[in-house]
Amino acid sequence: MGLVKRLLEEQLPALPIEAYDQFFDVNGPFNPDANWLESASMEDQRLAVKTWFVSRYCNPAIETPYNHEDGYLYINGGPYDPADEIQDKFEGIVSDEVINDVVADLYFEVGDEWAPINYEPEDYDDRFGLELLDAGDPFKRLQDRINQAVQILSLEGSLEAKKIAEQLVFGHAITILESFLWETAEYWVENDQDILKNFVTKVPEFRDKKITLGEIYDQYEGLKDHIKGVLQKTTWHNWNKVVPMYRDGLGIEIGDPGVFEDSIIKRHDIVHRSGNDNKGNPVVISLADIKQLHEEIFKFSSRIDKQLIDRAEKQKPDF
Fold first, then answer.
1. 121 vs 2, 231, 281, 299, CA distance in Å?
2. What does residue 117 show for φ and ψ, rounded to 5 degrees?
3. Is the dihedral of CA 256, 178, 35, 100 positive or negative?
């Protein structure tokens, strides 16, 4: 773990679970939930806005190269002015007073020139690796997982226990979808050289990465593992990342994932709020809800699987 991340863990304040948005990545910077932020007290708003900024930017003295002639060398971008970044992000969500207070505090601490924090994930961890032998394996696994989850609903127990089981099976359905998306992406990165090339040349997260000339050979040799490492740590219901990754990297359109939006919110409440929504009301899940979600996941994933299989068939050489 780098120095900046260690400092963040030591210094960032503890915010309530409601403060975190549903796409929050524990390995990445803090993102506040917009609904929570709008209704929060001014003190909590200041805290959340400042946390958002300092989890993305740091004092350049911490790890930015420096020489006496040119000063700090912002090799990862910047410098960044808190006034610009915070205004762009939070204007219209919190008051100008809150924004000005936070900016003044940050100016006092460091000034108007901040460096970006590098959240680049570590490369592939083979302890969590996948063994996928066939292009159809991810979709077969998805079907098996849905069937296994449905069997849980037939277990005997009290009414309360059955309700909890229904919540857990519903939430698990989103995990099944996420696993399919991850396993599918990893299979094709591992087995299709054209798709690997697409990830490097077209997906912004990899395409725009800055490297020095001296790093080229090391980066090239570890290229596949680096991409697989990013895939391992991707939040697979963060559609702002997943849709372009599939479009630019895998070369397909996955369709409209908006059909899962309400289910993802319910799953968030089941997992992170112990089955209650942000107002404290129980999340009610019926067997019909579970069946419908499983069917939507099956249709969504089936289309993705078919597109990729068809794409591979078309690219086979004619003999």
1. 11, 10, 37, 32
2. -90, 135
3. negative
Which letter, b or e, does each residue of 241-257 get, where b requires 16 or more Cβ atoms within 10 Å of its Cβ? bbeebbebbbbbebeee
pLDDT tens digits, one per residue of 151-186: 999 888 898 889 999 999 999 999 999 999 999 999
**Domain map (residue ranges) of the chain:** 3-116, 126-314
At residue 288, the 3 state secondary structure works out as helix
97 Cβ contact list (under 8 Å, min separation 6): 42
pLDDT value of position 4: 42
Cis peptide leading into 317, omega within 30 of 0? no
Could you give the 3-state DSSP secondary structure of residue 58? strand
pTM here is 0.63
306 three-class SS: helix
Tell me how far apart the alpha carbons of residues 49 and 88 are, in angstroms, rounded to a whole number: 12
Spatial distance between the Cα atoms of 186 and 61, rounded to a whole number of angstroms: 38
- H or E element in which residue 66 lies: strand 66-67
- Helices 223-232 and 159-191, axial angle in degrees (round to 10): 160
Q: Which residue type, as a one-letter code, is found at position 86? A: I
| pLDDT (0 to 100) of residue 240 | 85
Query: Tokens 């849980």 identify what position?
Result: 152
Query: If you average pLDDT over residues 50-54, what whole number do you get?
Result: 90
Query: No. of H helices and E strands in the chain?
Result: 14, 4
Contacts of the segment 187-190: beta carbons below 8 A, 24+ positions apart:
187/130, 187/132, 187/135, 187/137, 187/138, 188/135, 188/250, 188/308, 189/224, 189/227, 189/228, 189/231, 189/249, 190/132, 190/224, 190/228
pLDDT (0 to 100) of residue 53: 92
State both tokens at 88.
């762009």
Task: Report the residue count for the chain.
Answer: 319
